[in-house]
Automatic annotation (TrEMBL):
Family of the protein in this entry: Belongs to the HAD-like hydrolase superfamily.
Recorded superkingdom: Eukaryota
InterPro entries: HAD-like_hydrolase_domain, HAD-like_sf, HAD-SF_hydro_IA, HAD-SF_hydro_IA_REG-2-like, HAD-SF_hydro_IA_REG-2-like_cap, HAD_sf
NCBIfam families: DREG-2, HAD-SF-IA-v1, HAD-SF-IA-v3
Name of the protein in its database record: Haloacid dehalogenase-like hydrolase domain-containing protein 3
CDD domains for the chain: HAD_dREG-2_like
One Pfam family here: Hydrolase
GO CC annotation: nucleus
Length: 251
């Protein structure tokens, strides 16, 4: 006997799915440095940040919480390492810049809501769907979402800092399902990372949608994600849900 699938819960990634930075990281760092009398090229800082972030994430996963760090200390160290790689060796000079950057990155003015995000979230709510955030972010995310007027759309916000595990660890998805009291088959996740979002959610039995940008998709990724699960924009989500829920579920 065939039954129609019914999705009850949508979990959402945030950065580069619903929000993005207004300016590239290198520009933000260069602007704050200039305000403290320090001139460093934005491109140099942008490159250094990517290297510092990768190193920090590898050495101290999920903000180093299991190694005694706080997310705040983790980010301050990323900034210090970034400027060090960019040629600024004096930590005392960089320390106030790091503090300012940490504070500014939780302000709504640093972020912008992606096109179609609010309308899509509202449309999902109007359908009676429950919405939640599952994000590899720290505790500042609540304030960012509230300041941008998006927090009201979500039943709860689950960050990797609060959960103790980052995506794609199955435990963060299981925790979201537990909080929502929804089975994996009744939930879908939306995000822009093939590894952390798309595959992470599928691994626990959830449905999954991958948000893709205008740039060409990696052929290996494209070949492993069904066309109906690729979202060129958030406005494609509701039709994709219609397609998913129209598929018969064999019992």
């Amino acid at each position: 006997m065939a039954h129609r699938l019914q999705i009850r819960l949508l979990t959402w990634d945030v950065k580069d799915t619903l929000l993005r930075l207004r300016h590239p990281v290198g520009e933000e760092y260069a602007t704050k440095a200039r305000a403290h009398g320090l001139e460093v090229e934005a491109a140099t800082l942008g490159h250094a940040f990517r290297q510092a972030y990768r190193t920090q994430s590898h050495s101290f996963p999920n903000y180093g919480l299991s190694q005694g760090l706080t997310s705040r200390r983790w980010w301050l160290d990323v900034v210090l390492h970034t400027f060090h790689l960019a040629g600024v060796r004096d930590a005392q000079t960089v320390a106030p810049i790091a503090e300012r950057l940490y504070e500014d990155f939780c302000k709504p003015c640093t972020w912008q809501v992606l096109e179609g995000a609010e309308a899509t979230l509202r449309g999902c709510r109007e359908r009676g769907l429950r919405l939640a955030v599952v994000s590899n972010f720290d505790h500042r995310l609540e304030d960012i979402l509230r300041g941008l007027g998006l927090r009201e759309h979500f039943d709860f916000v689950l960050t990797s800092e609060a959960a103790g595990w980052p995506k794609p660890d199955p435990r963060i998805f299981h925790e979201a399902l537990r909080l929502a009291r929804v089975d994996p088959a009744g939930a879908a996740h939306i995000g822009d990372s093939y590894h952390c979002d798309y595959k992470g959610a599928l691994a626990v039995g959830m449905h999954s949608f991958l948000v893709v940008g205008p740039e060409p998709l990696d052929p290996a990724v494209k070949g492993s994600v069904p066309q109906e699960c690729l979202l060129p924009s958030l406005s494609h989500l509701l039709p994709a849900l219609d397609c998913l829920e129209g598929s018969p579920l064999e019992l």
